[in-house]
Amino acid sequence: MKSFNYFLVKLTCALMTVIILRNFIFDESLSIIKCNSQVVYAQKSKQTSKNSKTKVVTGNHWRWQKPRAKVYIDLNDNPDMISATNDAISAWNRTKVFTFSKTKNKKKADITISQVYHPYTNYAGFTTFQYYLKTGFLYEAAVNLNIYYLQNFSNYYYNYERIVNTVEHELGHAIGLKHNNIKKSVMYPAQSLYPIEPIDIANAKKLYHK
User: Fold this and answer.
1) Does residue 78 belong to any structural domain of this protein?
2) SS (H, E, C) 159-195
3) Is position 93 within any domain?
4) Contact indicator for 93, 100 with CB cutoff of 8 Å
5) Is residue 101 a part of any domain in this protein?
6) Which one of 158, 173, 192, 205 is CB 3.0 to 4.6 Å from 210, fit for a cystine?
7) Which residue intervals define the domain Peptidase M10 metallopeptidase in the entry (predicted)?
8) Cα gap 124→149, rounded to integer Å
9) Per the confidence metrics, is the pTM higher than 0.85?
10) SS3 breakdown of the chain: % helix, strand, coil, rounded to 5?
11) How many domains does the chain have?
């Protein structure tokens, strides 16, 4: 009996560990690991502590099965953020590497774009997404724009251009691009100084075999 109780305790601890880590999504009907999730960030401007590191995602490449996705904009009628998001979407569409189409039906969206107010983080934006482990194909992404930094509730100044660059950066993550340590790139992990550059287009083409 003691052995059985010990087994139950160990099993409970193991299940709790899996739930807390939340690294995998389980298919309830099959009870098998079906896909994985990731989170990537756009670091805020300068003045960052030396101990503050940008989170860089490693591992295999992930992408959408086809170079297109439906986007639902959920920005609480925030005109500046909506305008910047629309401009960022248009900028990516002009590259002709990936096409974003807007939808008013959240349930039909592949990507949602929302705003958050997080003063106790180091990030102007972050993107989470789900992808299938076997294929690496994305099936859902969520872009979160931190208005604490982007709309100057903090001491970090973001003009409109840099807000657009930040949204372009997060959309880059949403299509599968990782951080680029080359500074003249929209995917550079800090400061949001550059829009979509030729190197970003080239990386997106490589990702989608164009």
Assistant:
1) yes
2) CHHHHHHHHHHHHHHHHCCCCCCCCCCCCCCECCCCC
3) yes
4) yes
5) yes
6) 205
7) 80-208
8) 6
9) no
10) 35, 25, 40
11) 1
